[in-house]
Amino acid sequence: MSREYETVIGLEVHVELATETKIFCGCSAKFGGESNTHTCPVCTGMPGSLPVLNRQVVEYALAVGLAAGCEINRFCRFDRKNYFYPDNPQNYQISQLYLPICHDGGIEIETEAGKKTVRIHEIHMEEDAGKLIHDEWEDCSLVDYNRSGVPLLEIVSEPDMRNAQEVIAYLEKLRMIIQYLGASDCKLQEGSMRADVNLSVREAGSRTMGTRTEMKNLNSFKAIARAIEGEKKRQIELLEEGKAVIQETRRWDDNKEYSFAMRSKEDAKDYRYFPDPDLPPVVISDEWIRAVKERQPELRTEKLARYIREYGIPEYDAQIITSSSKMASIFEKTSEICKKPKKVSNWLMVETLRLLKEKGMEPEDISFSPENLAKLIDLADDGTINNKAAKEVFEEIFSNDTDPLYYIEERGLKAVGDEGILLAAIDKVLSENSDSAEAYRGGKEKVFGFLVGQVMREMKGQASPAAVNKILKDKLS
């Protein structure tokens, strides 16, 4: 009889913070840029250079910790984590081990079995390393220090998750909180949110932890889900064969759907942590915590209830819109301008989501302005353009944020409302479809839609639907 196994999963999530400058120097923390241009003696580890803490990093850490229900260490400090690697110019990383800024929190997630709280062990501040670029053509590795010193929060969970679905639910909730706070854009594809998965398996019902492995190189939720399933299967196969699982760090290859050993897993003692002598401790007062709390924006739960109450949109619409801070912001600003929240919701729920899916984009990548979306809604509402033209205009707004009035004039998309032109087209359609006209007069109302379609076809889609409906009904009666 085969044994049943349980998966035990904890996460270490690294989030790059949305500060203008790096954690310990004044260099730009912006993603990208020409290699080694966002650098100075501090973030490249030059002898004699001294770090100075960026206050905004502490503020973001406090905001995330408070939103995640954490306790705040009123006295915290930085430690040196010593290791050699080419993208680590000082041969140590400034991090927090002994006194992290936040500890003992939790995030509630929805699972198939109902609500569940994933406990957060700690949140600490640290600096990012540089980036190694492997040049296969020249058979060498180059290093870009632009990312060195970019501020990170590391959010360490307890091993409370049991499957990939719970892990993704936790990550999505965490990402949403951080994006709402404005602390990070959390773009996995740019590395501003990264997750290392600590996973072990044990016999179902056992209280003893299995030997865990840590998986790195996970840059999408799909890759994380596949890596969890792949590593779970690998460990169970080892146990079934009577072999031991080795505690190690593994690299997930999403193309091969398999993980490969990188190095044996280190313990804290291997890094020779000690307090950083160049940075004083951070003392966090009650007043500082109170000030951060007062600045906390409305988070998703409150926003969801308010949208249903104030805007009168369906709960399903509100759920989708509030699942992204960017989408929620566009919804609110557009509704404020045009005063038509249900129509704004429709454009976001249908056309915006369609184009995001087609282009493989995230809601945070939306670049059109609320002003142009509001203009489009008003133009479609007053009959300046018909529904078909409105969709074409929206695609242009979505891609280039073009002023809809300019685009309509340039492309000649304005709906024809001239009564004389429409009368001529309607007369022609009625003479060519006299049987349908008689059928309508005889009580077959469904025929009306066919006749409207024929008129729109005659007008090459440029007629005002409202005007066509009115004139056609007058003619048929």
TrEMBL record:
Keyword annotations of the record = ATP-binding, Ligase, Nucleotide-binding, Protein biosynthesis
Identify the Pfam families for this entry.
Answer: GatB_N (PF02934), GatB_Yqey (PF02637)
Q: Which GO terms describe its biological process?
A: glutaminyl-tRNAGln biosynthesis via transamidation; translation
Which GO molecular function entries does the Swiss-Prot or TrEMBL record give?
ATP binding; glutaminyl-tRNA synthase (glutamine-hydrolyzing) activity
Q: Which reaction does it catalyse?
A: L-aspartyl-tRNA(Asn) + L-glutamine + ATP + H2O = L-asparaginyl-tRNA(Asn) + L-glutamate + ADP + phosphate + 2 H(+); L-glutamyl-tRNA(Gln) + L-glutamine + ATP + H2O = L-glutaminyl-tRNA(Gln) + L-glutamate + ADP + phosphate + H(+)
By sequence similarity, the record places it as follows: Belongs to the GatB/GatE family. GatB subfamily.
Q: What does this protein do?
A: Allows the formation of correctly charged Asn-tRNA(Asn) or Gln-tRNA(Gln) through the transamidation of misacylated Asp-tRNA(Asn) or Glu-tRNA(Gln) in organisms which lack either or both of asparaginyl-tRNA or glutaminyl-tRNA synthetases. The reaction takes place in the presence of glutamine and ATP through an activated phospho-Asp-tRNA(Asn) or phospho-Glu-tRNA(Gln).
Origin species, per record, is Murimonas intestini
User: Is this entry keyworded Membrane?
Assistant: no
> Residue ranges of the Asn/Gln amidotransferase domain?
329-476
Protein name (Swiss-Prot/TrEMBL) = Aspartyl/glutamyl-tRNA(Asn/Gln) amidotransferase subunit B
What Enzyme Commission number(s) apply to this enzyme?
A: 6.3.5.-
What PROSITE patterns does the database record attribute to this sequence?
A: GATB
**Subunit composition and interactions:** Heterotrimer of A, B and C subunits.
EC top class, in one word?
ligase
HAMAP family cross-referenced by the UniProt entry: GatB
Q: Which InterPro entries match?
A: Asn/Gln-tRNA_amidoTrfase_suB/E (IPR017959), Asn/Gln-tRNA_Trfase_suB/E_cat (IPR006075), Asn/Gln_amidotransferase (IPR018027), Asn/Gln_tRNA_amidoTrase-B-like (IPR003789), GatB (IPR004413), GatB_C_1 (IPR042114), GatB_Yqey_C_2 (IPR023168), Gln-tRNA_amidoTrfase_suB_CS (IPR017958)
- Superkingdom is Bacteria
